[in-house]
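Subject: Sanity check before I submit

Could someone independently write out the structure tokens for this chain? I want to compare against mine line by line before I put it in a report. The sequence has 483 residues.
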Amino acid sequence: MAESGGVGGGEARCRRRLRRGAAGLALLAAPALLYALRDRLAAVTVFLSTLTPKFYVALTVTSSLISGLILGFEWWYFRKYGTSFIEQVSVSHLRPLIGGVENSPPTPSFPASNGENETNRQNLSECKVWRNPLNLFRGAEYSRYTWVTGKEPLTYYDMNLSAQDHQTFFTCDTDSLRPSDTVMQKAWRERNPQARIKAAHQALELSNDCATAYVLLAEEEATTIVDAEKYFKQALKAGESVYRKSQNCHSQSPQHEAQLRRDTNVLVYVKRRLAMCARKLGRIREAAKMMRDLLKEFPLFSMLNIHENLLEALLELQAYAEVQAVLAKYDDISLPKSAAICYTAALLKARAVSERFSPETASKRGLSAAEINAVEAIHRAVEFNPHVPKYLLEMKSLILPPEHILKRGDSEAVAYAFFHLQHWKRIEGALNLLHCTWEGTFRMIPYPLEKGHLFYPYPTCTETADRELLPILRDSSVTLQLP
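---
Independent answer below. Compare away.
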């Protein structure tokens, strides 16, 4: 026992000596490390002190020159290919290397007719459904069509999307604080139109300043645009009062902030629909002014695409210079495109040459610079949405536009042509130039459905999605429309 204890004590003493030795070595090395660090800092200080102002000027000029070269190349690449080189390289090459995953937009949940269709829809993220900025009024226009023809102009899927929009736009968590808002929260969920209208009247009995109740009555109970405008004027008066109150107390809590957001949605929606009423009643200048004021007052409120309403009103006024000014602002690389943007730009280019354009003369002498610009603009528009020309050229019959559209799809083509066909007809020779040009688009653009020059490849899912939005579709496939 004594021997083992002696051995253990010897080991412990050895460990203590080693620790003391290591500590001593650390103390001896610390000054050396400090001296080395001081020497390095001194060297850096000497180097920086020797730099003259000329070096900084040269560095600034060099960096500016490199930035300018990059900017110039990026501009040239975008003009030629219609896309950003830096963005393309980062998405195609850099993101896979660092393991990034692109966030794709949510796929709309369509009612499934069978398992295969449901799987296809989930995998096609390009088929994003958008609100139609020029949708008609439920009571004054869609319902009147049903009364006359006995046919339903809207599909169940389209109306279900609108119900979801209304619940998002016109309700919030604080609705329980006001009985009228509580009633309207239930009203937007009602499937039966008469039940919704009855609930709106009940809300007004509880509070005569319930703006959303007036909105519902304007959309669904009013049988004429005049009646709808009266309801919307009442909604505007009530909405402005509630909006001012929400502005004063929106910073008190997150609930008050949500209420301000909802009241802002209501106010913008009402003003936009009032402008559309004025447009339909022939007060076009008033409508254009209301839309301009709305864009100035709420510049970031882009979900309703009010600029497309303004474009249509300005085209009706034949204020083409103002149309060009709006396009210059909204036809931008950072903003999503639409048939209204692309085809309006093509119409303005065609207007400059269409009156004197002759295919026979052009084939002999060649195209002028202005004609080439017009043809390229039409190619760009057709590449974005190849369905539109057959509606503009009246090769396919128009139906009432749905309340939601699929960009680049047949539903968007119907919505665009329904309102803009008259503007193309008004410009002499514009439709003739379109007819002479659009069929050649697919011959000039290699593999148009797979490899576009200006936009991402045309999504093959549009036909399936459009069948959920449009009650009548005939030969909607782009493949069937290729010349």
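---
OP: Matches mine. For the report I'm noting this point. The chain is about 70% helix and 0% strand.
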